[in-house]
Amino acid sequence: MSGVLIGFGIIGFVILVGFLVGRFGIAGPNAQYVMNRLAFFVATPALLFTVLARADLHVVFSAFLLGAAISVAITALLYVLASRLLFRRAVPETTVGAAAACYVNANNIGLPVAIYVLGDPQYVAPVLLLQLLVLAPITLTTLDTATRGKASVMGFLTQPLRNPMIIASLLGVLVALTGIPLPDAFFEPFELIGGAAIPLVLMAFGMSLHGQRPLEAGSGRKDVLTAVVLKSIVMPVIAYVFAHFVFALDAEQVFAATVLAALPTAQNIYNFAARYERGVVIARDAVLLSTVASVPVLLVIAALLAPR
Hints:
Layout: H1 2-23, H2 31-53, H3 63-87, H4 91-102, H5 110-118, H6 124-148, H7 153-158, H8 164-178, H9 184-194, H10 197-208, H11 221-246, H12 251-261, H13 267-276, H14 280-305
């Protein structure tokens, strides 16, 4: 279980640094806003391009990916139903909450877990591709359309082409598909800039925690708790059921599918919410609480399902 603890130790330390930066005002009053913008428009697109340009895209057609997609879809649908029918939330807040319930931290927690617990970083690739090429575009397009107050078919179709993260992801997939032989020197500037993405997002998240208390009255406790329960418990159960009983994957793949579904909410969801200034508290609290909850959940899954 050292991989789980290592992953959470890394992310926790960087968040703590961000919290201290915000607590002592080291970077000034607008630092959090600036860091979020840099992460959204510059650093994260560079990171996504380099990751996807070197990905093995054969995993796109695997049963492992299909199982992950089904667990994401069912979990998101459950949250949307609860938000719209029970909580009566607006579309932007519902979108952020649904993403918080099913969008996993496949990068800065998923990769260490895949390496140290699953023994193969390639297990993260299907989830990463699913989120970048399907879930992120849907989330960002919905937020963009809902916050602008108007919608059109053309606007919906072209919005992904105006989003830097989606453009970078598509370019990365294009490079991977075509097998264009690009020299290492070509990737180095993108890797250098992309290396700032995770620290920027984590530190901005840590700064957002200063002066805040999770689950404060009037902050949307029902929304947050619903997202956290779906993310931490319901989604891993769904992933296990489909991996084991529907697709009949082997024990190692069932274990991997369940572990990846149990990963906490990605900090990107907070970044998305902060970018559109809607559902920020829901995203912040869901990331924090799901991160805490995922530690015992992952330990239980490992104890029950890890191949002997």
